[in-house]
Specification:
Length: 337
């Protein structure tokens, strides 16, 4: 069996390289309007309505409130996802967050992506279009420029739900949490139907279990940022959580924050990606052997984890139907999952 050696990049070096190429030392916040950005953004494509096309999050009100809310740095890695990218960008901008730093890192797409990035460039703090070394490298490039209080990334075929950043910001202010995550929706591209995915109960001791927290609904204190392992091609978020979560103050938001799109080209649903997933898991085993050995502590955790999650999910599903109905009304969607 091949042995993998983990080598993590220095984000400060990436920041220096980007600065030398003309990137701003501090990417500016997206322009903000007290009345919201919906009327200022490009018009949605014909036939698109609801969130995030004709619906926006109610803007924050009051100058005093604006100074108290955390700033966000959101990175969007993208490559040939032009048919989804606009929805992703609008779902971030229409959060109407007054302190939002948006970075888009495109790997040199040959579809409509470059044109979309140009259309939304007035609201993008930094955009890079050109070859990179894959998704993890693209995310690292964006994270190297992040100066917001909280950071996260959103893949260009996923999107946030209305009020996501507000709920995370309020949780940060109320609790001082260093890692905040929420539930999510899984949207089936073929049927157009969405199902609610209740997030696991996340603790540092559970990081060996895949799918613990969704990247499309997770945010962390920028001061705690660690780079992604760039050899990881599919399970980069899982491996990052292994290093990032232990020791952090973690809080769950009892509300769906993001949507993961299920379509044939998605890495999590493309059978052609199976070998890459398996390689990533072997890399994880080499980099973090203590998590996967047959120790008594690990055997106990494997029995403990499913029991704890059953209890946590049952607790978190209380009042679920009413919450989802409220979400669908907020999104002005016509169909329910």
């Amino acid at each position: 069996m091949a042995t993998f050696h983990q080598v993590l990049p220095d984000l400060a070096l990436y920041r220096g390289e980007l600065a030398a190429a003309g990137a701003p030392a501090v990417p500016p916040f997206a322009p903000w309007a007290p009345s919201g950005l919906l009327a200022q953004l490009p018009s949605p494509p014909p036939g698109r309505s609801g969130w995030p096309w004709t619906v926006e999050t109610t803007p924050w009100a009051g100058a005093a409130a604006l100074e108290k809310i955390p700033s966000f740095s959101i990175v969007v890695p993208s490559y040939r996802q032009g048919r989804y990218l606009e929805e992703t960008l609008r779902s971030i901008l229409l959060q109407n967050h007054p302190r939002l730093q948006l970075m888009v890192i495109d790997g040199g797409s040959t579809d409509e992506s470059a044109g979309l990035i140009e259309r939304y460039r007035p609201w993008i703090g930094f955009a890079r279009i050109g070859p990179d070394r894959g998704q993890s490298h693209a995310i690292n490039l964006g994270l190297s420029l992040a100066t917001g209080e909280l950071s996260g990334w959103l893949n260009s075929d996923d999107f946030y739900l209305p009020g996501a950043l507000r709920r995370v910001g309020e949780t940060r202010r109320a609790t001082g949490a260093e890692f905040i995550y929420g539930d999510s929706l899984a949207l089936d591209e073929a049927s157009g139907r969405a199902r609610h995915v209740v997030a696991d109960f996340a603790l540092g001791r559970y990081v060996k279990f895949p799918g613990l927290v969704p990247s499309h609904g997770s945010f962390w204190a920028t001061s705690r940022t660690q780079p992604l392992w760039e050899e990881q091609q599919c399970a980069m978020d899982y491996e990052l959580w292994i290093r990032l979560l232990p020791g952090l103050r973690i809080r769950h938001v009892g509300w769906p924050l993001g949507v993961i799109r299920e379509h044939p080209e998605a890495k999590s649903h493309d059978p052609a990606q199976r070998i890459r997933w398996e390689e990533d898991m072997r890399r994880n085993g080499s980099a973090h052997p203590d998590l996967y050995n047959g120790s008594l502590a690990n055997r106990w955790r494997e029995m403990e984890f499913p029991l704890v999650q059953r209890i946590a999910r049952a607790w978190r599903r209380r009042g679920l139907d009413a919450r989802l109905q409220e979400l669908w009304r907020e999104c002005a969607w016509k169909t329910h999952g």
